[in-house]
């Protein structure tokens, strides 16, 4: 059997997951493209740079919606809503595609965490449930700050010359976005938690906090990283956040392997290596694999001892 441990595979995870054996992965923590990023099914470096440069001098706050997609604005007519709905349904189908292979490679009791937007996390959960996973929770990652988005109606009416626009002070088209959703799912247990632990080393969450408290499903007060110059990825998650998720959801058992099928710049894999865990990464963009390998090369091997189970 090919040894995939501590390797990064280059390619579409829908195909690369087929190379992994059955019941191989102990936990999966991943941050796939969200539904707007999904438009066009293209995530190579050229396309990413095109999108970012296109909005460099723009006031728009959504840098991942391709111009010309019809989803970044426009008249909210029937066609607009149909287009948005179709986008979400196509995204759900795409999630179901890779979730089927992910289900096969996970051990019974393996926990799967998937980041997504607050608008579409439910569709991700449904897609993974359809593939066979069991929904366990939604973890809330509360960011240190949020950016108000949408229409400021007072300013909009001022621009159009309406009288008394101040009457609409405080009325906007959406709330300040301050949190991200992480859906938590699990491959069905082998009869019960004890049997699953003894046979597969999976199934449980680590809940003891540093202060002795019981771990909540809300994660906050997590500092942001200052990315090194070579890390050009546009949506890097904080390392402390991924370390926290690894601490809670990845079992410290013999043969434990954490998978990230959308590895990006490798933050999940760095957190796994720092914890002394084995990992497998999959990334479609070759440029990012160079970044991952450089980041992993900067991590000293952990001396942490895993449990006997």
From TrEMBL:
InterPro entries with a match to the protein in the record: DNA_methylase_N4/N6, DNA_methylase_N6_adenine_CS, RM_Methyltransferase, SAM-dependent_MTases_sf
Enzyme Commission number(s): 2.1.1.-
DNA methylase N-4/N-6 domain segment(s): 26-294
Statement: the UniProt record of this protein carries the keyword Methyltransferase: yes
Keywords: Methyltransferase, Transferase
PROSITE patterns: N6_MTASE
Record flagged with keyword Methyltransferase: yes
Pfam family name, one: N6_N4_Mtase
Assigned protein family: Belongs to the N(4)/N(6)-methyltransferase family.
PANTHER family named among the record's database cross-references: RNA METHYLASE-RELATED, TRNA (GUANINE(10)-N2)-METHYLTRANSFERASE HOMOLOG
Protein name as catalogued: Methyltransferase
Species of the source: Sessilibacter corallicola
Lineage, top ranks: Bacteria, Pseudomonadati, Pseudomonadota, Gammaproteobacteria, Cellvibrionales
